[in-house]
Amino acid sequence: MVYLGDKLLYHNIVPCRGLFNLVVMSLVSIFCFKVAISVSFTVPSSVSTEGLEAEGLLKWRHSLDNQNQALMSSWVGNSPCNWTGIACNEFRSITNISLSRTGLRGYLPQEICNGGVLVNFTANDNYFIGSIPKSFRNCSSLYRVRLDRNRLTGNISEDLGVYPHLNYIDLSYNNFYGEISHKWVQCQSLQSLKISDNRISGGIPPQLGELLPRQVLDLSSNYVVGNVPKELGRLVSLFILNLGSNKLSESIPMEIGRLSNLEHLNLAANNLTGSIPEQLNGCSKLLNLNLSTNGFTENLPSEMGRLQYLQVLDLSHNLLRGEILAYSHSLQKWKTWNH
Questions:
Q1: Does 70 fall in a domain?
Q2: How many whole angstroms separate alpha carbon 114 and alpha carbon 134?
Q3: Residues pairing with 7 in the sheet
Q4: Are 328 and 305 in contact (CB under 8 A)?
Q5: At CB < 8 A and 24+ separation, what contacts does 279-282 make?
Q6: 175 - beta bridge partners?
Q7: Is position 9 within any domain?
Q8: Lowest mean pLDDT among 194-208, 258-272, 297-311
Q9: Could you list the residue range(s) of the whole structural domain that residue 283 is in?
Q10: CB atoms closer than 10 angstroms to residue 52
Q11: Host H or E run for residue 94
Q12: pLDDT in tens, 211-245
């Protein structure tokens, strides 16, 4: 009976061990499966992004003529991180593309920001033509952009998107057209906006005054119409405001005098009228003030003599009344002044 009991006990133990082994093997299989899935969705993603970005840039390089391709002789293979003008992050996704002052001609690369992490894109001082790539519109990771001094065209109201991290953008000296969009307000990190010497039209959106802080606003040499929005007086961190050579009208809003950090103010070559507001003396750090070629009347405010740092004052080609020489005692410290 003891033997039979042992036998029966033995038979009871064996199935339990089998069940235990089965459970262990199942858990191990599940763990391995999860690891395999994790690896498949992490490691190859950076590799495939690198290959996709390389493919797009190589396709663009091959579209250039032989002379331009020779300027990019290092752009070979499937590892763009080793190419001249390209920088990558630790996952080997492209974060910087620098094509500045290379003498390149043709169109900009159409497939950029495929990795979704492009931070800096500079292609200034070249001979690029055509429009801004469509892929640029959704590249929300951008921080710095320079496309100035090319021959680019297109409607900036439609070709550009919203860039929450954008700090600096220069589109000057091109052939862009369209109007200044109020969407710039959504670029809350923007410090410098330069769109001078293009064919921009329409008015200046008052909403631009909601962009704080900002340091440089240059919309000069365009076809901007309307008035100078008083809301710009909220840009208290601004040190360069250039709206010269446009078609602005009406008077200078007294709120501009709130720009206590302003160093350069250019409103020249517009259709501005009325008197020069005495509140401009609130721009106590002004170095350069150009109000020439407008329709300003009345006398020059005596308060202008309080601008102790002013070095250049241009009031030429206006309709100012009175003897400007009466203020010569205040102007002696200014290096240059035209009247």
A1: no
A2: 12
A3: none
A4: no
A5: 279/254, 279/255, 280/252, 280/256, 280/304, 280/307, 281/257, 281/306, 281/307, 282/257, 282/258
A6: 153
A7: no
A8: 297-311
A9: 89-338
A10: 15
A11: strand 94-98
A12: 766 899 999 999 999 999 999 999 999 999 999 99
State how many domains the chain has: 1
Q: Could you give the CA distance from residue 320 to residue 339 in angstroms, rounded to a whole number?
A: 9
Are 266 and 242 a contacting pair, CB within 8 Å? yes
Confidence of residue 339 (pLDDT cuts 50, 70, 90): low
Q: What is the domain-level CATH number for residue 150?
A: 3.80.10.10
Q: Which residues pair with 247 in a beta bridge?
A: 225
Tokens describing residue 156: 């900036």
Q: Residue written as tokens 């033509």?
A: 129
What span, in angstroms and rounded, lies between the C-alpha atoms of 318 and 273? Answer: 9
Report yes or no on 308 lying in a domain.
Answer: yes
Owner of token pair 């169109």: 107
pLDDT of residue 332: 52
Domain membership flag for residue 278: yes
28 vs 37: CA distance, rounded Å: 14
> Which two structure tokens, joined as six digits, stand for 295?
């329709």
Tell which residue, 208, 214, 127, has the closest CA to residue 169: 214
Name the nearest CA neighbour of 54 among 73, 84, 70, 75: 75
- φ/ψ of 335, rounded to 5, equals -70, -40
Secondary-structure breakdown of the chain: helix, strand, coil percentages, each rounded to the nearest 5: 35, 20, 45
Q: What are residue 216's DSSP bridge partners?
A: 192, 240
Lowest mean pLDDT among 30-34, 56-60, 322-326: 30-34
Report field, pTM of the whole predicted structure over 0.85: no
